[in-house]
Structures are given as C-alpha cells and as structure tokens.
Amino acid sequence: MKKLIVLLLALMPLVGVFADKTEQTKSAKKETVVLSCDIHCQGCCDKIMKNIAFEKGVKDIVCDLKTKTVTVTFDPRKTDVETLLKAFERIKKPAEVVKDK
Amino acid sequence: MIKVIGYRLLVVGVILLSPIASHLSPLLAQEASDFEINEVTVVQRKKGKVKSRTEAFDTEKLNSDELCRAACCNLSEAFETNASVDVAYSDAATGAKQIRLLGLSGTYVQLLQENTPAVRGLAQTFGLEYIPGSWMSSIQVSKGTSSVVNGYEATSGQINVELLRPQLQNPLSVNLMVNSEAMTEANLMGGWKIFGHHDIHESLHTGILAHYGGSYMAMDGNHDSFVDMPKAQNANLANRWVYKHGDYTFQAFLRGLYDRRRGGQLADSIANPYRINLNTWRVEGFFKNGYVYDPESGSSVAVITAISYHDQDNSYGLRNWKANQLNVYLNAMWQGNFEGGGEVDNDHRLTTGLSVNYDRYRESLAISLSPLPLDRDEVVPGIFAEYNLKYDELLSLVAGVRADYSTRHGFFVTPRMNIRYTPFEWWTLRGSVGMGYRSPNAIADNAFILPSNRVLHLANDIKQGRAVNTGLSTTFYIPLGSKELQLSMEYYYTHFLNSLIVDLDQDKHAVYIYNQTDLAGAKSFAHSAQVEASIEVLRGWTWTAAFRWTDVEQTTIGADGIARLRPKALTNRFKGLVTTSYQTPLKKWQFDVTAQFNGVSRMPDGFEQPFTWYPQLMAQITKYFRTCSIYLGAENMTNFRQDPSIVDSFHPWGPDFDASMVCGPTTGWKVYLGFRYDLEKPDED
Fold first, then answer.
1. Chain A contact for B591 (CB, 8 A cutoff)
2. Which superfamily is assigned to B7-679 in CATH?
3. CB within 8 Å: B43 and A62
4. pTM of this prediction?
5. What's the pLDDT tens digit per position in B302-360?
6. Is A60 on the interface with B (CB under 8 A)?
7. What range defines the domain where residue A33 resides?
8. Between chains, do B591 and A92 touch, taking CB under 8 Å as contact?
9. Where are the beta strands (DSSP E) in B439-571?
10. Residue in A4, A37, A46 to test binding to B, most B beta-carbons within 10 Å
C-alpha cells in the first residue's frame, strides 16, 4: 500500500513534466494570435475557455482581463484566424485581431 | 508581469463584500466575488481556494473549482482537500459526520446557509449531509471570531455556504454519481428568468434545486455483524425566487427534505438483531428584503427572516430519541457607508440592527421504558453594531458588539474585533479577539453516544457555553520568478468560561454530561497552530502542503475518580495534508491527488489506543467536454480503517457494546464515477 501512495504522489510531477515536454515538441506546428475582446470578469473568461477550447485545432488560450485580450495558440493545419473569430462570434463575444505572432 | 490585486477589487470590495450586500444584491455580490477571484488578472488557471487579501476576517473561499476536486456529494465532503476543516464519522454505526475547526467540534462552528442559520440544533447530527454538493456555488470558511451581524454563536469560526442563485445558474444542470458501495445520487438544478431584463430595473427569476440519494446495499466488510454504512434514502427539494425592482431586492428560499436510514446488525443469522432506524423530516425557508436607499454609497436596509421545522424519530436498539424543533429567526439591519476625506482612500461602514431568535424543542429520549423529557424554549432578542474601517490597502478593522437577552440564560454581551494590517504588498498580518456563546443541545450535539449501552447521566441544569477566542495569523506572498508562493501561519486559542463536558472517562459503561462550572477548578481550552504553503509550480499545476497541531484539553473525572485536565478524548492532535492538482492548458483534463496524515487521539479511560496515526489518500481524474464532464475517483485508497470500530459488536445488548469509540475511518476504500452536464445559459440581448 505504501508503494501505491508513493507511486501516485510521484505520478503528479510526471504529469506536469509530460505536459511541458509535449508542448515544447509540438511548438513548431503552432501559431498564435492575440485578439481584442470585450471581457470584463472571470465569467467571460470561463465562457471563452469552455467554448473556444473545444474548437478544432486550438492548443492554448490565455485570457488577460487587464488588457481585454485573448491569446489563442492553434494548429494552422486544422484551423485559421477567421474560423476562430467566427467561433467567438457564436458565443457572442466578438473579437478582433490585435496581432499575429 | 502578473498584476496582483486589481484596483477595481478595492473599489467595489468596500461596498459589496459587506455582510448586508450578500443579502441585498446577490448578483452584485457574485460579481464582486468574481473580481476577488481575479487576484491575478491574467487568467490561466482559476484559483479554487482564495484567501482574501483585503478583508479583516481570516477567510478563505472555496469556489466550485475547489469543490469539484473530490466527490463532494454534500457539505460534509467539501473539505477533503482542505487543511483547516476536518470531517470525520462521529460513530461507527449511523454514518453521521462531525466537523472540526481549530480542533473544536462542529457545535462551536456557526454553520450558515447564505448567512441564515443552517446546521444547528437538531440538524447538528446529520445536517452536513443535508446540503448537497451540487447545490453549492461556494463556501466561505472564517477562522476565529467573525461578524456579530450573524449572531453570537461562532466560537471557533463560521462556515457560510452559498447556493446556486437562479439569476446566475444554468437553465439545466445535472450531476449523477454512483460508488462502489452502490450508493447513487442524482441532482437536478435549473434557474430561469420569469420576466424582466438586467438593463431595465425589474426582473423575476426562479430556480429549482433537487437531490435524491440512495444507498441500497447492506455490507459488512469487517465482519463485525454490523453494516458498515446504513442503507439510506435522502430526498431534498428547494425552490428559490429573486425579485428586483430598482434598488429593492426580494429573495425567497423554500426547502423540504426527507432522510431515512436503516442500519444496525445484519439480521441473516441473528435472532434478536440490534437495529438502527433514523427518520427525519425537515422544512425550511428564508425571506430577504433589502433596499439600497443611497446607491452611490451603498447605504441600505435589510430584513431577513428564516423559519425551519425539523422532526425526527430515531431509534438505536431500545433507545428511542423523538424530537422536533421549530426555529424562527429575524434580523433587521441598517448599513451606512461613509467615505473619509483626505488624500488616502479610506472608507467607513457602520452596520447596526436587531435580531430575534426563537427555538422550541420538543424532545424525549426513551431508554428502555423511562423517557427523559428534554423540552425547552428559548427566545433571544438582541441588538448589534459593527464598525468597519478600510484605510487604503494598509489596514482593515472590524469592531463589533452585540447585546442579547436569553430567556434561559439571561443577559450577555458579545464584543469582537478583527484587524488586518498589510505593511508590504507581500506580507499581511491579522489578529482577532472576541467572545462566542451557545445554548448546548445535550443529545443532538452528542448523538454519537446513542449507539452504545453507556448509561446516560445528564446534568439537570445545562448552562450556556461561553468562550473567548483569540487568534493571530500572517500570510507571506513570496514571488518566485513568475510564480508566487503563498505561505500562511496561524495560531488560535479558545478559552472556555463554560462548556458542556462529555465525560467518557469516569466509567466505560456510562457517559456523564455536565457543565464545566459544575466541577470545581475545571478547565477547557484549545490551542491550534497551522502552517500552510501553496504554489502553482507550473501553469495549471498547483501544490498545497499544510500541517496543523491542536491541543484540546478539558477536565474530566477519570476512572480512578480523580478530576484532572487531560487531552479531549477522540480528538486528533495533528493533521498533515499534501494536495496537488494538474489541469491541462485548455481544461480538458484534470488530475487531483490528496494525502492526509491524522493522529493521535486519546482514547477514554478503559480503552486501548488502536493506532497512533493514520493516512488517507484520495485521487480523482476529470475529463471535461464542452457541456459535460466525467469524473472517476477513489477515497481512502490506503484502505486504512479502525477495526474493530464497534466495541463488543456481537453482543449489542450487553453492557460493553459501544459504537462511539471512533478515532479513525470506519469504512474502507471506495471508488466513484460521476457525470456532470450543464446546458449553458443563453446570452441576454
């Protein structure tokens, strides 16, 4: 039983490390766009995270309440900025491109 | 660079995060709490547990993200990942759970539901399980003395549960769960707008909260002839309404519940089995009226009424405990907000009002053929005033006093003070001192002794419990690169001027319940010290480690007939906790692991220490989809259990039988699988 405890506790760091490594190896296939969006609270960010996260090709989202921007990282082979903007439109959070990275 | 504490939080915080604001304007209060969550304005992973940096009270808020880290079927399971609050089975036969804060039992914690009385009186025994986990939107845990606005009962702290609000909740939410012991539960929630719109000044919303839980399998995993957990059915239905017209708000909450438990010995091969039958009916409601007469400053008036009727018919072998309680509560208050002059941002708030609490108990405990009448009535009218100062980001101070008159215990005064000082952005200091009072309920507070054959000796004149609580806490926010380590240390001391002592030491076949003041020179106190560190080590990956030491002592008469001060029986002396959670960047997966180390408890005289400490391990994996999520978890993975947990379980009619000697888990490992679905609220045009 003690071994099981140690194993489970050890798994958590591995999960984090694995996630980090996966992110690095795939970075070559990613593009990032910064979108300006009318977000003013945690609820807006939750809504964006809950919906845009499940759009095809989306790899990462960072919501910045201070600058009212959403940074979306995506796989250009699976989606593009126009499709993402339509997805924002569908959840009634219209967005505009601030810059492409 | 991550900006810590948005400026707007400080501006709205003064007005909205006050005791009256949550009654008056739940929508605004929720928005304010959203800002509170935004301690970090770049949202990557929302914090599940937030300790306010600006409030004078030592409060931590557990939001829905934290509550979803474990099965959290009900309030009793909401603290599995929390270092401050302990929840444990209070006996080995009924499934009743007991909460502990600062080492003190739940009777000294004021448990509120949206700042109205919730788990108190007769509901103390099973009340934690009467608030389903899926109904809760957040929990605030305040340690030490809290606001006098909500009464005088909080001694070691206050726990306030916020339920889903109709104007914020989704039109349909479902939560289904089943575990390896064939316990199933279903929750159905929904909130709808009847008319109005948030842009105009009138609206009416309603919400339904429904819960059904059933446990159908009688299992005897440790072969002690008793079922590990009673077969149970619990039906719980609530309806709430929120009406807003300009600056006037009305809220109504109505709830009914039925709880049935069947436990005791498995009857297969026993001629005269010991049975436990527990039946509870409860109806309750609260009504809140509030008017903000000066919207600019937030000055307002509010009247809150709450009423509940609790009826139970419980039998434990030959013992029959029949009781009902009627509670009526009224709280009328006025709040004025004043902005101080000068260059420094300083705000002053005064809250004052009156309250009346009425309790009517009709209670009898029949042991064999001699019922013990315990009927009592108590009316407590009182007045209160609380001053709140916020001086820039540097200082917050809450000083309050209330004067009450109890028809049973006479006149008493409750002074309390809380202060927060932030000399640097990375360092906060808090201090608190105050008094708490409580009318003990000898049987309901100590129902764990009923499944035993201990002879009950109850003092004739039970006096009011009175205690002074003092506390100091400090929190460091230490920057580590782009991350922040939050390191908290706290110490609380509770000194009882009088408490109800449950003496299990004098005689292993009896329990003596008497006032501390009945025993010359008797003392009762509790020390609690805790250190806690938490950090998000990588994006989405959080760790919390905590250790708490408690020393709860009281004078009891030992088996040798000599009264002496000693550690309180069946109370853990330390708790360690390590909990970690990883959420993938898009929140599609979440992994949670929590390990706890609990011990050592003193056993009453005549009983051997079964173990010195015990571990607990819990884990859960959650897979999120756009509108639903599936979670799979396990509890007590170390399968550690106190065995035997019932003394002389094969002879329940003999003098030695005792299911109350519990100091560890009484059930083994458990696996559960659950499903959550949310039909998202449509945007309003």
1. yes
2. TonB-dependent receptor, beta-barrel domain (2.40.170.20)
3. yes
4. 0.90
5. 999 999 999 999 999 999 999 999 999 999 999 998 877 777 677 899 999 999 999 99
6. yes
7. 28-100
8. no
9. 455-458, 465-480, 483-498, 500-503, 510-515, 524-538, 541-557, 563-567
10. A46
